Amino acid sequence: MTCISHRVSVIYLYLLPIFICLSFFVSCKKHENNDVLLKFSTPIVKFDTVFTTVSSVTKLFTVHNRSNSEVSTTIYLAGNNKSYFSINVDGESGTYFKNVKIPKKDSIFVFVKVNINPKDENNPYLITDSIVFITGTNTQDVKLLAYGQDAHFIVADPSKGFKVVAGLPIDQETGLPTGYKQHVTWTKERPYVIYGWAVIDSACSLTIEPGTKVYFHHNSGLWAYRYSELNVGFTDLNPEGIKEEPVLFRGDRLEPWYDKDYAQWNGIWINEGAEVEITNAIITHARTGVQINPYVTDVNINITVNSLVTINNTIIKNTEKCGVWAMFLNVEMTNCVIANNGACSLQLEGGKYKMKHLTIVNQFMQAERKVPACYVSNVVSAYKDLSYEIKAEFINCIITGRNESEVEVIKKGAENLTASFQNCLLKTKNNSDYFVDCLRNEDPKFEAQDKLDFRLKSGSPVIGKGKPTEVKEDILYKTRKNPPDIGAYESQ
After folding, report:
1. Which CA distances in Å does 275 have to 42, 186, 240, 270, 310?
2. What is the pTM of this model?
């Protein structure tokens, strides 16, 4: 008995480490519980309007396992290979993912994109699908939704960086112009998406009808080349337009998080001799909203062209640099808003300018701005400080912003500088002879300045303080009183 007992004890001691290891292994083995409901960060992934043939941005959502056990789930795209959507689960692309492990109290990422084929339709159309999750006996899904929009795509020649959208027909064999100049019209039925510079060539014209939407890819823009013609919106040359339908110029990324990207596209560039009339437009999220200057490569500039750029009833906002930057040429602006610009809202250097009923408000917050909202000078900074005569007249304008002084008139060179601000509200620390019957450093009392709503509240100091002019309507085509209000909006 003693011998047998001793042997049992020895065997037990020998096997004890094995029993301990087995017990430890069993106790540490992960326990899967697939009979749980997953938690999603969103029940639906929505894409704003996506242009056909152009891939969307990538969106993501998280899949949470809130249980105390690891779960295994099968994930698949309901539309399979026929879906317009594509997904990536935790770094792996595909349409079907089996036994995806989600640790306890942990989560995984699912990434979604959409690429929509054209349908030859003018109106946006709805695209739907879903991502299905099967976990044990539970079936769940996340809905996918996007609006597709067919568009006119204008793609620049990669070797040139531009595409002529209105120009002289070119003989394919000789490469020489042939035929008559082009008069091209863009209509509102479908948007236009621009890649690179869209160019209006000399002696040719482009008309953009009211309600037209023009979207620009990164580093793209609209270029009115010297001696061309551009007519935008409800203009004298397009009198049948609808006032309630502005022409929109903006970047081609429509997702809300791009709203803080103020350099989505280059802007509208206008050269000497170009006859331009822009009325009832919105220009937003460009590097420079409108740039007006000669197309030259040296400083030996002799501008004799008396062409005119007219901008009426237009909003120019959210730009990385200037709202409007004009050099040497002739510009008239009436009933316009220029707001939220990273540099000067309005920069005028040499040339002739008539500004009536502008509302210029520069509260740019993304970076420090060391220049005023409105800058007028007879020195052209872009051309080695070349001196050039300037005449600038401001009537019934509001010019304000974050800086202590938002109006600056600088005369440096020998050329004449003539400037006047009549019946304007100005934020400035200076009292200048340029200011005639102006209000200084008063709150204009806008409806919602943080939302760029510059309509006037009751009790605004600018109500009825304007100088009577030939301008009979405001930016919204509301009748002006006599005397009118200062700024782009007339109180009602």
Report:
1. 51, 18, 20, 9, 8
2. 0.83
